[in-house]
Write a structure and sequence with these properties.
Elements: E1 2-5, E2 8-11, E3 16-19, E4 22-24, H1 28-39, H2 47-54, H3 62-75, E5 85-88, E6 92-95, E7 100-102, H4 112-116, E8 130-133, E9 137-138, H5 146-160, E10 167-168, H6 171-175, H7 184-191, E11 195-204, E12 207-216, E13 222-231, H8 235-263, H9 270-283, H10 287-303, H11 308-323, H12 331-347, H13 352-364, H14 368-381, H15 386-398, H16 405-415, H17 422-435, H18 439-452, H19 457-469, H20 473-486, H21 492-497, H22 504-520
Parallel strand pairs: 8-10, 8-11, 9-11
Antiparallel strand pairs: 1-2, 1-7, 2-3, 3-4, 5-6, 11-12, 12-13
Helix pairs in contact: 1-3, 5-8, 8-9, 9-10, 9-11, 10-11, 11-12, 11-13, 12-13, 13-14, 13-15, 14-15, 15-16, 15-17, 16-17, 17-18, 18-19, 19-20, 19-22
């Protein structure tokens, strides 16, 4: 069954919400809430009724219900207007949009490879980035915990489907494997997937432990494993945090695994090249890595000029080159990134990361207010996009509100504490602290940034400047030398002439950076 309203379609069988041809990401609770309101659109649905149906009678705070309702409204573009979901004070909620229903047409069964578009002649190999999330095990054996455990499994399935190019087995198929002896290779063959994610949840007193493993379904070897220990406060908030952290970490792990496979391909296609380029960028933002990444993405676009992920990734590489001061004239790189992202969003307006990357371009070109707006749009499309929070924090530095940067970065780190971009987020806090005159705090954040990734030249140069301003000349010169090893072409002049903001407090703080770099022995240029 499908329900059509405005330019949206709610597909009950596939559990998908689409706007035109674009898939709109939704969590299981948001999907169920919207489905129930549409099915009961002839009447007002009470708060208690929604809780009973969507959360199976669990105790849910008003704040949690409000959060899901707001997310539902955001998914269907109903923020502020209430043209589709109307709140009736002290009564409940009602879906007031015009709805048309249609049965899904019967189709002949097709293989999973065909569904994913992988139909090369004679090939039955699993599609790239194909994965199934098996039902997590409830190690306590307490039926009361089943709802939470199933919620983690379902939400993670939804969030992984947001990874561009991924093919994620639906939850109904995955749940058919509940309580069965897990022969992972056999499951991989039956579902024709490359990867299997399995996990368990155990509650002990006031703490919750979640164990997960990512497995190569063909070889059976473990690719990645992680354990999360959290205090058992609000289960729904905890579920959201666990799922966001897992999804963000798995994104990087799957890209690395696919890149490794692509390296052994005799005839790499555009997607193989994109994976290899993204893996280079994930290794660090030094000039060598960025140049290699751009080459992979440009080659991918020669093979497939319409490849959205190649466009987005090339824009990211160009943005990184310009924003990291890896060139004397960053303008061509930033212009190319902006042009590419505008093109992507004209084709795929719901691409959350493209919105955030465009926000970063606007930040770097003295348009930080507009940049924050683009990041907020990205968060509407993907609430777990940690990069958006950090980018807003960077924008606050540019416009003289650097006292707010740390909070935004901490929210990004809460959602994705081991993110491949965490070194940059830590760097944002460091420069904001410097602008506040808190050099000792800035020093600590810079050291954390370098510990997270030692291949970011700018962090070494800023560490050198900060140490010099604190009177640690010998350490400062060592830090400057480390930066010059990573980027031998960097000069103070390059940094000075490529100014991303004209805010007075930002410009005043830069003068101190110039002074610190000179004291540390960074080349003048």
């Amino acid at each position: 069954m499908r329900y059509f309203f405005e330019d949206y379609a709610l597909d009950i069988d596939r559990r998908e919400l689409r706007r035109g041809a674009e898939l709109v990401p939704t969590t299981p609770q948001v999907f169920d809430l919207l489905h129930y309101l549409i099915c009961n659109r002839e009447r007002v649905v009470s708060k208690d009724e929604l809780i009973n149906v969507v959360w199976k009678g669990r105790i849910v705070s008003d704040a949690a219900l409000t959060t899901r309702l707001n997310a539902t409204r955001s998914a269907i573009g109903d923020t502020g207007e209430q043209r589709l979901i109307k709140t009736l004070p002290r009564a409940g909620f009602r879906f007031i949009g015009t709805v048309r229903m249609a049965q899904r047409p019967a189709v002949a069964p097709v293989s999973l490879a065909a569904q994913s578009g992988d139909m090369s002649p004679g090939s039955l190999s699993p599609p790239r980035l194909s994965i199934v999330v098996l039902p997590f095990a409830n190690l306590n054996g307490d039926p009361e915990q089943d709802y939470f455990v199933d919620g983690v499994t379902e939400s993670l399935t939804t969030d992984l489907s947001r990874i561009s190019g991924s093919f994620v087995i639906g939850r109904h198929t995955a749940f058919a494997y509940r309580s069965k002896a897990a022969d992972l290779k056999q499951i991989g063959r039956e579902l024709n997937v490359r990867y299997i994610l399995e996990g368990s949840v155990q509650r002990a007193g006031s703490r919750l432990r979640v164990n997960v493993r990512l497995v190569d379904a063909q070889g059976g070897n473990h690719i990645w494993a992680e354990r999360f220990d959290k205090p058992g406060a609000d289960l729904f908030d905890m579920q959201d945090e666990i799922v966001s952290r897992l999804a963000n970490e798995l994104d990087a792990q799957l890209i690395a695994a696919e890149a490794q496979r692509a390296e052994h391909s005799l005839h790499p296609d555009a997607t193989d090249l994109v994976f290899q380029g993204r893996a280079r960028l994930n290794n660090g933002l030094n000039p060598e890595h960025m140049a290699q990444a751009r080459d992979f993405f440009e080659r991918a676009l020669v093979l497939d000029p319409s490849n959205i992920e190649a466009m987005v990734s090339l824009a990211r590489a160009n943005l990184a080159t310009g924003a990291s001061f890896a060139t004397d004239d960053r303008t061509p790189y930033l212009n190319a990134a902006e042009t590419g992202l505008i093109k992507v969003l004209s084709i795929a307006p719901q691409h959350a990361r493209a919105h955030v990357l465009l926000g970063s371009v606007l930040n770097a070109t003295n348009r930080a207010i507009q940049g924050m707006v683009k990041c907020e749009r990205g968060l509407v499309l993907d609430p777990n996009l940690a990069e958006a929070h950090a980018t807003i924090g960077l924008a606050k530095w540019y416009i003289g509100r650097c006292g707010e940067t740390e909070d935004h970065v901490n929210e990004a780190l809460r959602l994705s504490p081991r993110d491949i971009l965490a070194f940059r987020w830590l760097f944002y806090v460091a420069v904001a602290k410097h602008q506040l005159g808190a050099d000792v705090e800035a020093l600590a954040w810079l050291r954390r940034s370098i510990e997270a990734n030692r291949s970011y030249p700018l962090a070494h140069f800023f560490l050198a400047a900060t140490l010099a301003l604190l009177g640690e000349q010998e350490q400062a010169r060592d830090a400057a030398a480390s930066g010059s090893t990573l980027d031998p072409t960097f000069t103070i002049r390059r940094y000075r002439v490529n100014t991303p903001s004209d805010h007075p407090s930002f410009l005043a703080a830069r003068q101190r950076f110039y002074e610190g770099m000179r004291l540390a022995g960074v080349p003048e240029g």
